[in-house]
Structure formats: structure tokens, C-alpha cells
Predict the structure.
Amino acid sequence: MELTFLGTSAGIPTRDRNVSALALRPRQSAGWLLFDCGEATQHQVMRSSLSLYRLEKIFITHLHGDHVYGLFGLLASRGMLMAEAPLEIYGPAGLSTLLEKVMDASQLHLPFEIELHEVSGGERLTFPGYRIETVPLSHSIECYGYVYIEDPLPGRFDPERARALGIPEGPLYGRLQRGETVTLPDGRRVESSDILGPPRPGKRVVIGGDNDRPELFAPYGAVDLMIHEATYTQRDFDHLPRKFKHSTARQLGIAARDMGVRSLIATHISPRYDSEERLRELLDELHAHYHGPVTIAHDFLTVTL
Ligand SMILES: [Zn+2]
Ligand SMILES: [Zn+2]
């Protein structure tokens, strides 16, 4: 799968960072999913290799503006492009009212159908090739994280074993690889499990929303990648006159360490971290607790898993 960060700033855009949005292209898929849709996400899409035609599903973590104000413009543009494939949208209660009111007031008529699903946490949404589980988070308004879980991959093809069984090279190899049972020219039947290794587990990715308790993802344990906000360093957070329900790099580092996550990407970065030195403070704080590979996201960072 391929992940592209379209917006990595907390609250307001900066010269270098747009507000929250993340694209995920599932393995072996031309279509893609969008997680959150801050203002001007459609501009970021245009600057990437993604196309609104191929956008299949949108998942909104919560209704704060920096996560959702780009939705209306993006839908309208997808409509202007005459995309007709239906679009599924998932998000918290209130999303359908918000969308209906804006569409009604601005007389937005789309050439495609919107299938809107409000989530309430604990859902297991299954799709071909993967599933997505919803996790209630701790923020100042209702907010959900989404855990993307690939279906297991078939085991690896063992060409030596195939040769030993006398299977002729060619199309039969492909059919066995796809899990089919084949009949050989001499009449013998060969099951794919005879020449494939054990199924390999699919990748698991945590996609957090705004949340001051990253440990809420602990039940998912050693995921392949955790993408989560780290809006502030602990020191800056401690000096804030008014506390918002966000995570610090320290909190995220500790949670990722305790979960044993295989890799970590911090995003939703406060605009105050506007230089290499300031970003280094966030990174150092993450490294102080979590010793696996860690990256501070930037716009258009693309990761393949
Ligand atoms: Zn936010
Ligand atoms: Zn928020």
C-alpha cells in the first residue's frame, strides 16, 4: 500500500504545511482512500499523482474545521469533473447534517451518489482486501481513529517444489499462485497449498485523529506503522496557558514504545515548529522514548508498505 501525506499542520495551514489530510492507496488498487479533508485538500491532490476520479472512500476523524472544511470543495470539484462512481464517506455523528446543510444552502448537486455512514466506535468495516476498525479517541469533540488492516497475503510460491511435483512452467504457476487447484496434463490434481508457503499476515496501520491518549490504540499492539498526532513537545505543552486535548511527542513516544509498533510517523504539527531546529526538538523527544524508526511527516511525504 502507499500512503501520501497531503496535510500535516495542526489547526491552521502554514507556508509549508496544509491542514490534515492523508491518502492511502490499498495494495493492488488503482482507487484510493482519503483520511480527513482539511481546507484546500483538493489543491494538494492536484499537486500529487492522485486523481479525484479514483477517490473511493473518505474517512473523517472529527468535525473540527482543520479536518473537514475541505470536504465541500473537494466534492464539488469531483462533481465538476463529472466523476460518476459513488463515494462512500465515514465520519462521526453530525457529518450528514453538516453535509446536507452546506449542499442545500449552496445548491450543490452532484453527478455521483454519496453513501454516508456515521460511525460510533468499535465498527469493523470490511472491504475487498482489507478492513478498517474504528476507535473512539479522547479529544474535545467526538473523534475516531481508523485502523487499516490488510487481509492476509497468500504464501510465497515455491518454484523448487513445483518443479519436484512435475508442474509445467507457465499459466498453471499463475493459477496456483492465485490459490486455485489445478489439474496437470497427466490428470493429477495439485492444490495451491501444496506449493505455497504459509499465508503471510497483512500490514496493519493505525491512523489516529486528534487525541490526547495515544495509548487508546494499545489493543492493536505491534502494528507495522502508527500515524498519530504529536502537536507539541511536552515542554511547550506544559507552558501553554490553555490546554487543548492533543498529544505531545513524549506521550506518543511512550505509547508507541509500549505497543511495540514497528514504525512511527508523527503528524498534525503545531505551526510553532517552523524550522529544522524546532522540528528537531519534537524528533528528539520521540527518540528519547521510542527507539524504532520515526519520522516527522511533511506534506507530500509518501510511504510504501
Ligand atoms: Zn486538528
Ligand atoms: Zn481537533
Observations:
- The longest strand covers residues 130-136.
- DSSP finds ten helices and 16 strands in the chain.
